[in-house]
Amino acid sequence: MSRQSLDRVSALLTPVVAATGADVEDVRIRRAGARTVLTVLVDQDGGIDLDDIAHISREIGKALDASEILGGHPYVLEVSSPGVDRPLTLPRHWRRNVGRLVEVVTLEGATWTGRVVGSDDRSAELLVGDSNRTVQYADITRARVQVEFGKHETIEEEA
Known about the structure:
The protein is an alpha+beta fold. It has three helices and eight strands. The strands form two sheets. The protein has a five-stranded antiparallel sheet with strand order 7-6-5-4-8. Strands 1-2-3 form a three-stranded mixed sheet, covered by helices on one side. The longest helix has 17 residues, at 50-66. The protein is elongated and about 55 Å long. The chain starts with a helix and ends in a 14-residue tail after the last strand. The model has no long low-confidence stretch (mean pLDDT 90).
């Protein structure tokens, strides 16, 4: 499917998902035989559970069925959360991952691994070793949550 078509589908679904209190994180479209497979990744503050996914799926299905955006062809809808190892690319991703361990690669080539202790619209604060470091989003080339197998103390972001 063309980039233009993907953008149109995303534009249709974004307000539908936003009305449920969630955000569209990604939309993917692929062909599987005669069917179109539409995958929509969603997330929200406080996390997303199966009941949320079911509700969002129903709302997306209604919107798709009421439109001709997929050309009236049969489709399979997959709605899911992005997963823990997704890249952190937007301020809301950082906000939702306060307390999590992340690896950050900067434009200068430095790599830090630290715990997110706070964030705002321009930067995130990481606890790296024993000291806090503030990193501007504009200075990051890649940031990803690290999967931890042990328990850690949760850090609550101050409002």
